Amino acid sequence: MRDVAALIEPHIPALRRYAWALLRDEAAADDLVQDCLERALSRWQLRRRDGNLRAWLFAILHNRFISDRRRDRRRGVPLPLEEGSETAAVADAESAVVRRDLLEALALLPEEQRAVVLLVGVEDLSYEDAARALGIPIGTVMSRLSRGREKLRRYIEGERPGILRRVK
Amino acid sequence: MTGPIGEDDIQAAVDGRVEAPRCPVVQDYLAKNPEAAARVAALKEQREALRARLASKAAEPIPARLRVANLLAQRARRRQQLFARAAAVVALLVVGGAGGWTLRDMTLDRTPDMTRDAIAAHRVFVVERRHPVEVAASEEAHLVQWLSNRLGRKLVAPDLAREGWRLIGGRLLSFEGGPAAQLMYEDAAGQRMTVYLRPGDGKSGGAEFRYAEANGVGAFWWSDDGLGYAVSGPADRQKLLQAAEAIHAQVASR
């Protein structure tokens, strides 16, 4: 286990960034990362040596995230928006918010699209690695990426209709 | 590589991940389609803005509680406590003499032999890195045929991709009553699960799912059509149940 720290620690800043961007809560994000790291350490001997360590860590993090979500759901903790309930809330947000921050817009995305946009666009996972980390086919990664980015663009552009007019 | 341009190409252009042979086609398309090019440029800008917005988060120093050395020390402490507790139990057992046996893991005591054998086989083989299975999933047809022949009935290797499990392969095992089979699966995080099958002796359980857990390994067992099944894996009841239900459904629909 001597080399573990040297191998894992370079990835911790990225894991913290991803967890924070998903949850937008400092303490909850670090709890998630800690949970992920404890798991990774207990499974260290079981990891694929030829595999991509970064993708493996993100896969564990994401699995923990999903099972926490399931537990919250069982306990009745209110959840952020899911795909189905999105429309009303977004319509609300669109009428209420004139200037929207990129991160606020990101928080409006359905969780599954947010995860892909972050893993691919920010954490630089390849499409294959993102698919593996999320346990979904690559085609699903691509379609979530496309829908997520398009939605993000619409949310952001809602913020500056003036500029669009000037271009015309 | 001259197929029509798809949304995948657009996203790959945004990420700079268009594969080399496809590059000229995509570039040509974008040159001729200013609208698409504008969209790629806008999404690229969005991607950069998001990275810039989150960059500070990754630049923060790692909090002490997330340092690997600290986490390892904590694990060692916990293991010591567990060891101390185990030692206390041993002392109790010695003091309690024969009566002490009632302190044994009750759940496992009530499980049938089949499930205990399944969990034992699970423990032995999931930790194998080089030889987890005798026949790999790449020879799935051969694997299934072989195990079917030995168990004397037509088996299937359940497809658990939707439950997040990928078949690695399987092996032949033995028990008092003859040959048994073990199929091994792995998920995206490298966790392993095994499906243990053997001809039922009527005592291996009914059609309903039963669950037992010992030392971090959980197992669901049931029997279908005279064949006993046990699904063993990390003690995540929900996840194992999903796998068990999927297997039961696939066997039933055969």
Q: Which overall shape of chain B is indicated by the principal axes computed on the Cα atoms? A: flat
Question: If classified by CATH, what would the architecture of the largest domain in chain A be?
Answer: Orthogonal Bundle
CATH level 1 class label of the largest domain in chain A: Mainly Alpha
What fraction of the residues of chain A are assigned to beta strands by DSSP? under 5%
Average per-residue pLDDT of chain A, rounded, comes to: 81
Radius of gyration of chain A: 18 Å
Describe the structure.
Chain A has 10 helices and no strands. With 168 residues, chain A is mainly α. Chain A folds into 2 domains: 1-79, RNA polymerase sigma factor, region 2, helix turn helix motif (Rna Polymerase Sigma Factor, Chain: A); 81-168, Orthogonal Bundle (Arc Repressor Mutant, subunit A), CATH 1.10.10.10. Chain A starts with a helix and ends with a helix. The model of chain A is unreliable at 79-99 and 160-168 (pLDDT under 50). Chain B has 254 residues and is an alpha+beta fold. Chain B has 3 domains: 7-59; 64-103, no CATH class; 106-252, MucB/RseB, C-terminal domain (Phosphorylase Kinase, domain 1), CATH 3.30.200.100. Chain B is built from 8 helices and 7 strands, in the order H-H-H-H-H-H-E-H-E-E-E-E-E-E-H. Chain B has helices spanning 7-15, 23-32, 34-59, 68-96, 106-110, 113-126, 140-151, 237-252, and strands spanning 135-136, 166-175, 178-186, 192-199, 210-214, 217-224, 227-234. Chain B has a 7-stranded antiparallel beta sheet, with helices on both faces. The longest helix of chain B is centred in the first third of the chain and has 29 residues, at 68-96. Chain B starts with 6 loop residues before the first helix and ends with a helix. The chains are: A mainly alpha (168), B alpha+beta (254).
